[in-house]
Amino acid sequence: MKRTGLLSRLWEFQNNYGYISENAITEIAQELNVSKIEIEGVISFYHFFHLKPTGKYIIYLNNSIISEFKGFSKVKAAFEKETGCTFGAYCKDPLFSLFETSCIGLSDQEPAALINFKPFTDLTPDKVKLIIQQLKSGVYPEQIANNPKSKIQYTPEESKTVFFRKYLLGNSLKKLKTKNPEAILKTISNSELEGHGGAFFPTALKWKSCKESSDNKKYVICNADEGEPGTFKDKALLNNLPGLVIEGMIIAAYVTGASNGFIYLRAEYKYLLKKLENTLLEFKQKNYLGKNINGIKNFNFKIKIIVGAGAYVCGAETALIESMEGKRGEPRIRKYFPTDFGYLGKSTIVNNVETFAKAARIIELGAKYISSIGTKKSNGTKLLSISGDVAKPGIYEIEWGITINELLQLCQATSPHFIQISGPSGICINNTEFNRKICKEDLICGGSVMIFNNFRSITRIIENYVKFFKEESCGTCTPCRAGNQILHEKIKKIKRGICTTKDLNEIKEWGKIMQLTSRCGLGQFAANSFMMAIDKFEDYFNLKVAKCDDNCKIEFDMQSAVYDYDNLIKNTQFELTE
Amino acid sequence: MENISFKIDGRVCSAEKGQNLIEAAKQNGIFIPTLCHFKHLNPLGTCRVCTVKNNGRTIAGCTVNVEEGIDIEVNTPELLDARKAILEMMFVEGNHFCPSCEKSGDCQMQNLGYETGIRFTRFPHLFVDRIVDARPERIVVNQNRCIKCKRCIEEVRTNDGHRVFNFTHRGNNTVVGIDYEQEAKLSETQAEHAMHICPTGSILVKGKTFGKPFGDRQFDFGPEGKMIPLKEVKKHKTTNKKKRIATTSLAGCFGCHMSMLDVDLGLLDLLEVVEFNKSPITDIKTFTERCDIGLIEGGCCNTHNIEVLREFRKNCDILVSVGECAIWGGLPAIRNTVPLEDCLKEAYLNSMTSEKGETIIPNHEDIPKILNKVYSNREVVEIDYHIPGCPPNANHIWNVVKHILFEEEYSIAYPEFKYD
User: Fold this and answer.
1) pLDDT tens digits, residue range B304-337?
2) What is any Pfam family matched here (chain B) (predicted)?
3) Which ipTM did the prediction report?
4) Sign of torsion over alpha carbons B43, B44, B50, B51
5) Which fold would CATH assign to domain B227-416?
6) Which of A290, A300, B83, B126 is the most buried (most CB within 10 A)?
């Protein structure tokens, strides 16, 4: 076995035995000729791998903020009551193990859970009761799982639709026959395509850099590790138009000269694996994958799917590459672009699912068509995943330049108050900004739009974010690892009502330090929403804090400081009189 | 080898093309502090202490290779503060009890604390319970002190190339895990090497600690003549001719008071211009007059400490936390990682000296209640100045007091600025 096969090997053990035992670790370490701690380090990095035995059914309940507002705690309690197990504990129950997990890409159908990686959506305590009864009676999860399909709520008029229009397999690939890679790259460049994962890096530049690399082996990687809470648009593409995404990858391979491609699929979307594999097979049968593709001499390309194992940070391209190499998914230092030094040290392009799909449409429809849609700087359309306090959550294909107000009307939001754009690491906006446009010129959006109404507690929203980052940080650099823990202490202070304006200022100062010094995007953006919320929802926070001047008197909470002692003494004295 | 020129803080420097920035800066006489950077190792970029700006963009200095014409900022106020903040984060994230640490005086992190003049941390201490692992054959790993710099992970390998250490878990639970099997294969020299490259006291070789006495340690004296400036003391105006000082010891050991007495003959000078009010030195129990300076030793571990501290705040113009316990809890705060219930049960019910079958934890309305954790004075009242040390050097205390009373410009000599 090569090190690159480590993740899939670990999955074998995890799937077959429910955990990865000491013996398994020894066996793998010997095979790879590395120390056991190195393997253990990899296993413990990913939260879908377990070092202790689990039950027959592993239940992962999503704890994202959307889930929290839609009844997470009741559903959680119901799971614990019905199974008799505790969340996060390895109890010796042979049937069930319960764990919380970060967003699983079902924000439009929360609360949702994965049971043995099969989706169960719109959960209620009653539903949970039924599910557990059925599982206990021997029904397989796949028999009763829900359809995870997200509703496509909106597409622009047909002449302006890019993604969700009629799709015929191979339509874009046909164009490759008559155009050389340079011409294709030119088209991509003319369309001004940018990475739709959220970073908006010019795609043509990335491809060009890989194309010009002299490496003998090059790789094309599709980043299907969409982990930003509130996002599920990549899932919709993989589910509805897997072929389009694959075509995009083939085009990228044609341009760059790569002969190997990978789809890094997040484990949360394992239920899409079969579909993707079937699509790949179909492509092979039609000679769109394999050797001399589509009759083009020496154009050889194959695609392999790699399943992740539960780590948000692996959505960062260098962390994803590390993960594919069978290591802990720690982002690399900012020294090289993957196109210079990528997978196994070779020139690699990593693009988001949506970027590949759009690239395929650009080749199919022409750069002109795409450029005629959208705004000056943002061409074409964008897929948004809308969730939260709206009547119509789901997928929206919007023309760049749509205003928040228009969007709110489309999805029928009820008294929107706090809107999170691009997920927790993005930005939050208040109701004075609802006339802003979604596009590069104004408000860029990676795909997640979470809408919260007037009645939702902003403290809870922010706390959920901070906890998320605290757990999902890779733990390598100080400001991100320690910073998120420190910010969590501030949240606790706000919740206890002993927060002062000085604390709020400190949050902003400390957040800036995290932004300035963190190693990768996760740490740099982790404090963003918190800092912004303090300014944008000033009235809310003003009610939460005690005003103070420079010389502010700090409120010491004596009652809570002696609570433990009083309790303990009460109990020991009681024993005495008995 | 091509020589190139580039700028650091506006100064033109020269180095070999592609040289590591930290080394290149050093050659040009500019010190960029680092903790994870270690000679031949690939740049790790984990600790972030060396954060600099490269053409306006922040980046870890150890990951930069110098190029012709790059413009590096190192010592701007923003970066100096960020660097200090990262060190402070390390101090609050782990449990760094310098006075009881074997590596104290030889600890690179502690030394950077002195260099950057950290007197107290702006962040709250997290007091996470972490283990001390003595199971390995040759070494002890104290997770309380680990800053996850990755040096040991990359550097320490067995003769057949196997790693001995590796990160396990992630997020706030990330720890450096040890492979016991591989560790057993290390030679004594290799194990000692591991101890030496650790920038803190996290990796120790059994039986090889406390090697050097106080005064012989690597960072005891620092660069000769180096001074750490006094800052952040409020301007203080009084009309009293005779200034008044009050002192107290809360959850401390009176060591800081001992150190105050070590001011020696200086005390005689002092007594000419000041008088001591409430203080264990004078045995005056209650404030009789308003005081100019209150010197507080020790943190707050019970309700009585809180009351005394509040009283001091009320009666003193300037409050000074003297010593580690006053600043952040110090040694008494070792209990902060353990629940109060376990502490008291261990002390009164299950200890080796308690009676068999003992059920009573002493309690009386006259006995102050024990708080759920030891609080630093900063968490209870506003503190104006901090004097680190365990105990602080007598000269340090004396200089601060002089500075406050007479508004004398003064700074602390490096060897007098200590955490232990």
Assistant:
1) 999 999 999 989 989 999 999 999 999 999 999 9
2) NADH-G_4Fe-4S_3
3) 0.92
4) positive
5) Rossmann fold (3.40.50)
6) B83
